[in-house]
Design goal:
single chain; alpha/beta; 2-enoyl-CoA Hydratase, Chain A, domain 1; Lyase 2-enoyl-coa Hydratase, Chain  A, domain 2; 2 domains; six-stranded mixed beta sheet; four-stranded mixed beta sheet; 10 strands; globular; lipid metabolism; Enoyl-CoA hydratase domain-containing protein 3, mitochondrial
Length: 261
């Protein structure tokens, strides 16, 4: 993959899988306003691309992502300018959750603050066993309040509060145990497990995956009765879709399905 120093976000598309690579290695892939803008725009482009089945989020350099670009932020003047950075970050994180394609984080190294938020926002996450995760804002007088939103939705409250209150990094094995990532693997196996999982998902019906991802996040915010009523409606619509008809027919005929979408 090319590493043009002027390109802060690299995109590669192969076999229905789009890989977005953060490429600010000297800045430990800090989320500058420019990088967040490019990431937001590229996610929007891919959302409208029917050939893209899965999105993988990766990074170059010694860190996966160190969070916000604090040097850039210290240069801002006034509340509105500061608020615009967090608003942009929120748009990126919400875009990942609402992306029609599943988004997989491939974490090769440290992910801190908004970088940890990025991992927590993705649908799946695989990490090198040597990777570390932290929400260390409390150490510099800036509590990780926006990272807290994503973090508290994927790990238990006690675990989230431990990370937020102490700022202490956790290792990949702990991140797996707490549910922040799916799996911690040897660094040399990270590419393989990510690629295999992406390919497995890319082989499914895109419409079915999109329907399921959207339903998952919507029902998670509902009470039990509302969630079941909503999920039943979604499943009814899904059952009547062409790909469900094809999938069931293929299963009964013991042949591979041929998806229409």
């Amino acid at each position: 993959m090319p590493t043009d120093p002027e390109t802060i976000l690299l995109t590669e598309q192969t076999d229905g899988i789009a890989t977005l690579t953060l490429n600010r290695p000297a800045a430990r892939n800090a989320l500058s306003m420019a990088l967040m803008a490019e990431l937001e725009a590229e996610l929007a482009r891919l959302a409208a691309d029917a050939t893209t089945k899965v999105v993988v989020l990766a990074a170059n350099g010694p860190a996966f992502c160190s969070g916000h670009d604090l040097k850039e932020m210290r240069g801002l003047s006034g509340r509105d300018a500061v608020a615009s950075v967090f608003d942009q970050c929120v748009r990126v994180m919400k875009a990942i959750v609402r992306q029609p394609q599943p988004v997989i984080a491939k974490v090769h190294a440290m992910a801190t603050a908004a970088g940890c938020q990025l991992v927590a926002s993705c649908d799946l996450a695989f990490a090198a066993a040597s990777a570390r995760f932290a929400t260390p804002g409390v150490n510099i007088g800036l509590f990780c309040s926006t990272p807290m939103v994503a973090l508290s939705r994927v790990v238990g409250r006690k675990a989230a509060m431990e990370m937020l209150l102490t700022g202490h990094p956790i290792d990949a094995a702990t991140a797996e145990r707490w549910g922040l990532i799916n799996r911690a693997v040897p660094v040399e196996a990270l590419d393989k497990i990510t690629a295999e999982t992406a390919a497995l998902i890319a082989a499914k019906s895109s419409r079915t995956v999109k329907t399921g991802k959207e339903a998952f996040y919507r029902q998670a915010e509902m009470d039990l009765d509302e969630a079941y009523a909503y999920a039943a409606r979604v499943m009814t619509d899904n059952m009547l879709a062409a790909d469900a008809t094809e999938g069931i027919d293929a299963f009964l005929a013991k042949r591979p399905p041929v998806w229409r979408e």
